[in-house]
Design brief:
alpha+beta; 12 strands; homodimer; 8-stranded antiparallel beta sheet; globular; two-stranded antiparallel sheet; 15 helices
Chain lengths: ~350, ~350
């Protein structure tokens, strides 16, 4: 196996201290690979980076309309959020609008990933529930979809086990993923995600193609094309909901609006649509390093493939070349995109 | 540049989801490379993995004796600790025995790395000070050394700036590092560490040799050999102090006693002495991934190079092959040492 290229370097004392390898594909809506690095044909788990694809049935089915979901709520359905009070309240409201509560969620419970929000909760004497799970918005969307599908039946009984691959809700979700990527999901591995739903191994080439479709509507069913447009608009209007305070996805979409839809996933995954450029992107860091490496790599791809004015370019390039600061506030190095890794 | 071998794999759904490359050397006290993987001649920053080398002057100078440092305190001088109450109290006592307090520390302040200890502090309404810094024991050792060196002078004035490369304290510390590794520190890069002291780039081959010397005393000055023995014994008696609750280094040394002295460093570094086997080890993960990858790799090296009984072998192999568990407690994969990476 050839090693994937080095995409991100951590510098200290004038040398490269650590580095991150990975692979990435930039693809247009016709499926043409516009640029690439490393192995883009090995099936890999996209994890949470495909939440917008998994939310297509929520809108296309009419469930979002039936339960009067707002922009904030639709953005949260595509989110890996911080578990901040506004995220928790928004997920709770989604469930209430469908006549349910957090008892319906099967995502499991964890403390917010960001330490300061953990400490704030601990200081208030709070402990987390399933609404704090970074996937609670996605799961609330699944529950809303299930409530629509269950009409005429006992909703709670129908919903039980909605995270399982063969549940009617998850079959809808997987069908949307297969349609958007054009990848036969039965061909490759299935894993269980952090929140217990299946994650399907799909090549970067096909994931990038799916995001070019999400950005353009080309190659999607009419229902999914409308749903993709609605979800992109919702996230552009409420980018706080898709991640939260200080997070890359929120900051980028607050600044660049509908020109970029980007979404991180666990284990160093990223997918993005650049609708104005007609491109989709998928990126996987070999080592599964999340915030540090894959955000820098995504910034490098935005810099190269999205129309930016001078101020926006400085903003994006700042995200691709960060100071590393120690406990005394001294700049001890830099974390930056490796030019050669993005020349492909 | 040839890529370093894959040392650790994260498996999910029957496939390799992520993987970590790195390099490692196992060297005897004569400097002979017994086993190796990847590039062991590129100078790299060992970060906190060499704290025991940096503590040699504390003991060799007589400062440890002068200030009546206990086993717990000497272990803490070699530690990257959790900032648990016992660690904080032990660092405070070291400074008090030298007639000083935390005002003398120049390591900077951070919340304990482990989230549960952050939350416990937040719940108690506490905020961290320099004693909570994972390096506060090492720095308290530097302060004790400086107090001895300053005799007859104003200690506080003498100590100011002890983290700088040209301060008399840091010159002693760097000289010990150079003597143990046999590497001319003026030949390669110098970075600034998280706690603001210099970190010197040294090849893995030389770092492993230094740890074989620490384990055997061979090739060290008489004073450093005695100091190394004293520090190893202290850590074996008080392994909680070198890391803390649930931490790899503490668990391994609690179980294996003086057969293993191992110490993690930032950016995926590990050094170890296997004194009974007469070997030293140095390991660096390319991607700088800390807890996850380098601990698994270190467990694989202990498994191969340390005499273990059946129960100990099961314990060590369990650290080299861990279940990955999701937010519902479901085992979704494994993190394990890649056999081929350790066959060199």
């Amino acid at each position: 196996m050839n090693a994937n290229p080095i995409l991100v370097e951590a510098l200290r004392g004038g040398i490269t201290e650590s580095f991150h390898r990975g692979a990435w594909a930039v693809v247009d809506a016709a499926g043409h690979v516009v640029a690439r690095g490393g192995d883009i044909d090995r099936p890999v788990f996209p994890r949470s980076s495909v939440k917008v694809l998994q939310a297509l049935p929520l809108v296309a089915s009419g469930a979002a309309e039936r339960f009067h979901l707002t922009d904030e709520q639709l953005a949260l359905a595509c989110a890996s959020h911080n578990g901040e009070p506004a995220h928790v309240a928004t997920a709770r409201a989604m469930l209430q609008q469908a006549g349910l509560d957090e008892q319906a969620l099967e995502c499991g419970t964890h403390w917010p990933y960001r330490e300061n929000f953990q400490r704030e909760m601990a200081q208030r004497g709070e402990t987390p529930g399933p609404l704090h799970n970074n996937c609670s918005g996605k799961h609330s969307g699944f529950v809303c979809l299930g409530c629509l599908m269950a009409e005429g039946q006992d909703r709670r009984a129908f919903l039980r086990g909605y995270v399982k691959p063969d549940h009617p809700v998850m079959r809808e979700v997987s069908a949307a993923l297969q349609a958007a990527t054009g990848w036969d999901l039965s061909r490759s591995a299935v894993g269980t995600d952090g929140c217990s739903i299946p994650t399907h191994a799909i090549p970067l080439r096909h994931l990038a193609h799916a995001f070019a479709r999400v950005g353009s509507g080309v190659g999607l069913s009419e229902g999914h094309a409308r749903a993709a447009k609605r979800l992109r608009a919702a996230v552009a209007k409420a980018p706080f909901m898709v991640a939260g305070t200080g997070r890359f996805d929120t900051r980028v979409m607050e600044r660049l609006g509908e020109r970029v839809f980007c979404k991180v996933g666990a284990e160093g995954f990223y997918c993005a649509a650049f609708p104005e450029a007609g491109l989709g992107v998928a990126l996987k860091m070999d080592d599964g390093n999340n915030a540090r490496a894959c955000e820098v790599a995504m910034a490098a791809l935005i810099d190269r493939h999205v129309r930016l004015d001078e101020g926006e370019r400085a903003f994006v390039q700042g995200l691709a070349n960060l100071p590393l600061v120690n406990w005394n506030g001294i700049v001890v190095g830099r974390l930056r995109a490796a030019e050669a890794g993005f020349s492909g």
